[in-house]
UniProtKB/TrEMBL annotation, chain A:
Domain Response regulatory as annotated: residue spans: 3-119
An individual GO BP term: phosphorelay signal transduction system
Protein known as: Response regulator
InterPro entries: Bact_response_regulator (IPR050595), CheY-like_superfamily (IPR011006), Sig_transdc_resp-reg_receiver (IPR001789)
Biological source species: Pseudoalteromonas aurantia
PANTHER family: CHEMOTAXIS TWO-COMPONENT RESPONSE REGULATOR, STRESS RESPONSE REGULATOR PROTEIN 1
Residues the record lists as 4-aspartylphosphate modifications: 52
Keywords: Phosphoprotein
Entry superkingdom: Bacteria
UniProt cross-references to Pfam families, sorted A to Z: Response_reg
UniProtKB/TrEMBL annotation, chain B:
Class of this enzyme: transferase
Coiled coil (UniProt feature): none
Protein name as catalogued: Chemotaxis protein CheA
HPt domain residues: 1-105
Species: Pseudoalteromonas aurantia
Residues that bear Phosphohistidine: 48
Classification of source organism: Bacteria, Pseudomonadati, Pseudomonadota, Gammaproteobacteria, Alteromonadales
Amino acid sequence: MKKILAVDDSASMRQMVGFTLKKAGFDVTEAKDGSEALAIAKQQGFDAVISDINMPVMDGITLIRELRSLPNYKFTPLLMLTTESGLDKKTEGKAAGATGWIVKPFNPEQLLAVLKKVIR
Amino acid sequence: MSIDLSQFFEVFFEESFEGLDVMEAELLNLEPGTEDSETINTIFRAAHSIKGGSGTFGFTSVSDFTHVLETLLDQIRDGQRQLTAEHVNLLLKSVDCLRALLSALQVEQTPDLGDANDLRQRFEVILGMSEGSESQNIQETVQVESESTFQIDFKPHPHLFKTGNEPLYMISELLELGELETNVFYDAIPDFENLSPDECFLSWRFFLTTARSESAIKEIFEWVEDDAHIEITVCGGLFESEGRSGINLTEDSSSANAAVSVSSSSPATKAATSAKKVETKKPAEQSTTSIRVGIDKVDSLINMVGELVITQAMLSQIGEQEISETTITSLQEGLAQLAHNTRDLQENVMRIRMLPISFVFSRFPRLVRDISQKLNKQVELKLAGEQTELDKTVMEKISDPMVHLVRNSLDHGLETPEERVAAGKDPVGIVTLNAFHQGGNIVIEIMDDGQGLNTQRIKEKAIANGLVQPEDELTADEINELIFMPGFSTADEVSDISGRGVGMDVVRRNIQALNGSVEVSSAPGVGSTFTIRLPLTLAILDGQLVKVAQHTYIIPLISIVESLQIDITKVSRVGKDLDVLRLRDEYIPILRLYDIFTHQGAIEELDKTLLVVVESDNHKVGLLVDDLLAQQQVVIKSLEANYQKVDGISGATILGDGRVSLIIDISGLIKLSGLKRPGSQELLVEAKAIEVA
């Protein structure tokens, strides 16, 4: 079973993403901010990480930069959740090492469709 | 796979309301010009989360409105715009507006968008936006009906793998679009010695025959635009006549917009269906109110259920054995255990209803800000004891009376800055809200440092209203009491703030309906204090169990200062029968609990017992006990309701073993022992004198 780390400070988004992925057969771990996610990611491996950008303590861009610098996450798909207004965030995220992005708002079907681009 | 999004609504509403509370609190902290980036960031994040969630869950009215808010906050955050007082006011209004929108949506009503649209326009004026620039993106161009063939050149940069992208999956995606011919070029692969396994040396040329448009192809390569050379050309089918119209993807950003428009369509239809649902459902039935419960409380519940299961397993095991004397004994033990577990569980479930009073206090900063602006007064609000726990039902009912009292303090209590300066005070008035447990009560104090009650005017008014006779001799306290009489209002003119025809008599009545009381004390020129006392039939108390003779008493942990063995050489007897212990620089009167509660058989020698030093109303006394037992949380049961009031006892509780234990009311006990009687202070002075001699 493929393991995914879902990071969002909003409980409802986290639940929605987590529930959708679990239903699709993924093993999902949730984290509420970048620093919690980083700690979890260092303890265990994941096949993909999906992270919100605006979060307290550690934001998504920093998380992606930190993860990409870890040997275990050199090739791991790291996706960020952005809003349509965040075009420059996409560039910033890519520079930090993000694989791609999912544009908010999205529904469960769209999330799974996008995920197919990097994990199967 | 279809997923019903409505299962996440409750969490979304919950966290959105929480986010709004955060926004409000942070906004109130903001002083334009001195704002720090973290505060702005916190506000931005709250707005951003609400926008993201509402968009995802189909509440477009909320997400549209939040969008302008977010844009403004983003600009302030990035330093493009200076925060002004107007912004803060508008943002605060938006918080109210969002709260109203969300509340309506929560009970599945169609929200009133009037305020939202007004506010939105004002934001747009500030932002200088002409509407609709962002949200109305181009619909995906009409599907190309007939098939065409695209030539796609895809030459990844060597670092592609390090972005986490995988060409294989992209090819699979292409395959899903139509018929695919793949040519791979591997001539760039270096010698084995120079081969870096991390890098991508392959490149591809695809010929895709598909009915889908070019943007569908671009979408597949969207994430690697900057990490590869991509060229898509039409080489057959409908557009064949145009020949090779090379389009370089990297210079074309419309693909991103296409993705946006797709994603917004589905929530919109969801919103439409949920709007329809509204009419069939009965409005305003907010059926699922929820409370937030600390994880420690839940953990302890789970723990207890675990113990319950163990006990149950134990009992059923006994049930399977043959009945003998030993099984009967263990059966009895098991049943006792079960009773214990059940009681624990029951008590802990009740604890869940207890919430910190900060839930009520948190609405006051905003209230005070708004009112003081209206009144042109400068007010600082201080909160204390916010963690004091209170039953949820009591909490809901105490809020309105408190609002009334605070309004009253601001309106009538505090003076204008000019008056304050003239009276030699700081121009900024202080209103303090304080809460604490006292005995079986929760006490809420509302204090202001204003002018105090004007006894002269109150009396005149009372005489005019026929409440008292001019010849009545009244003490200041008795006069102050008059403000709680029905039909009494001192405001010379009915003001917008507090004089709404609802008088203090209603406040008192509401509090009395909760079995509580409200009192006022006031000093001219210094301020007044309203004290609300509410009984807590459900209150939970952290208690220290102590042994006195054969009985177990409970001392509220919060009032215990320390517990110690008595050094007999430091004890002196003063007066007839009062022992006083010299403890560091203080003299602590020793109260013999067995004496007060008339128990036989307790240890009477001071050096063989323990002394629990407690404090109440700034009085320290030592309680003599035989032994200290466990510390535990106990549920207070009212003695008045089940028996009658007992002096020195605030309530009772049932211990784990089923026995009733009495909870000591420290201030009542001190009163009972006569230490507060006039003259008792002299005794302490006398003790000091003896010590010196």
